[in-house]
Write a structure and sequence with these properties.
Elements (H helix, E strand, L loop, with lengths): L1 H24 L7 E4 L1 H4 L5 H13 L2 H4 L3 E3 L5 E4 L5 E3 L6 H10 L3 E6 L16 H11 L3 E5 L3 H9 L3 H22 L4 E5 L6 H4 L7 E3 L8 H8 L14 E3 L12 H13 L4 E3 L8 H7 L2 H7 L8 E6 L2 E7 L5 E7 L5 E6 L9 E5 L4 E6 L2 E6 L4 E7 L4
Parallel strand pairs: 1-2, 1-10, 2-5, 5-6, 6-7, 7-8, 8-9
Antiparallel strand pairs: 3-4, 11-12, 12-13, 13-18, 14-17, 15-16, 15-18
Helix pairs in contact: 3-5, 6-8, 7-8, 10-11, 11-12, 11-13
Length: 396
Amino acid sequence: MKNRFLIQTVSIFCISLGYATAQTGTLAVTPPMGWSTWNHFHHDISDALVRAQADALVSSGMRDAGYVYVNIDGGWEGYRDASGVLHPNPNFPDMRALGDYIHSKGLKFGLYTGPGPTTCAGAPASYGHEAQDAKMFASWGVDYLKYDLCSFRGIMQRESNGDLQKSDAIMKAAYQTMHQDLLATGRPIVFSMCQYGWGKVWEWGPEVGGNLWRTTGDISDNYGRMTSIGFREAGLSRYAGPGHWNDPDILEVGNGGMTPDEERTHFTLWAILAAPLIAGNDLTQMSAVTRSILMNKEVIAIDQDPLGKQGDRAHATGPLEVWTKPLQGGAMAVALFNRSSEPASMTLELASIGWQGQATVRDVWNHTDLGIVNDHSTVIVPRHGVVLLRLSKPGQ
Ligand code: GAL
């Protein structure tokens, strides 16, 4: 009898352990890829627009290149009724049907709310209704939830009386609450934390269930802002790995504010950072250049490399920066960035990035093999541009 009880208890424990692992261990094994309404459309969104973008994800080849999440950011919310149910606004007549449509295309459904009483735009968010909202999102088929701090900052200030440690603890608890409520739904839902990097979130994001966390304030569609947040990620590589990623924000590729070289810098840097690749452009209006950047399979493969290691800055001389990312099988991605406003000649010394012996080198953006390099290689890098190389051991 005693034994039977023991066996039962152990198996229940194992089942629940298996469940917890299934929830946390299989989500975002590589950095999530998809599309978001935010950077291009802001609050001007609707069911019809989201369906059209989902269609374009498929017809453009983006889905097959790996972009599967269709993320509705702020702007879908309507009102919360007397029984606490959160309703979408009239632009989104039936969220469940929209979720079904997204799934029918082989895509996944992402949604946005936050721990505060309201979102940044003043729409109702999940404060005090976390479990109820999580259940409803799961019933709509949501696969990814972005949880944006916004008005919760007011609650942190009020309840901590200016004590920063206490304020951070209140913030962590709010993320943990929603994480637990998502787990309780039984639906695997990627948890995307958005609190702009406050309190060094990379140090505690995984503890509160974050699969990714924003490390910075918002990106905007210009080279200055994009590089200021992207290059500031130096030093964060050790905090990322399968299931938990640093997120320097949604991509601006294809939105018109950057030159092709600047956009290649943007996409390369995000790939080196093993950042989530969430496109933020209008997928129904993509130029050939935009397509060639967003769907460059070799660059995407660097971002999605199964080793799951984020890259980092190896060294920099003024505006000329060399970043490296370890890849599976002993290979390495090396990005030579020229942040100056003139073209520059840059020499890669293999020893300076810790590479032993010779390397077989491929120019990733040009899709050309450069042959075997013995100790150094010199390339011309355009202004605000990049040369991205893939190094492997000769014969491999
Ligand atoms: C910001 C967030 C953006 C976007 C926006 C929506 O706080 O950083 O990524 O979600 O809210 O209002």
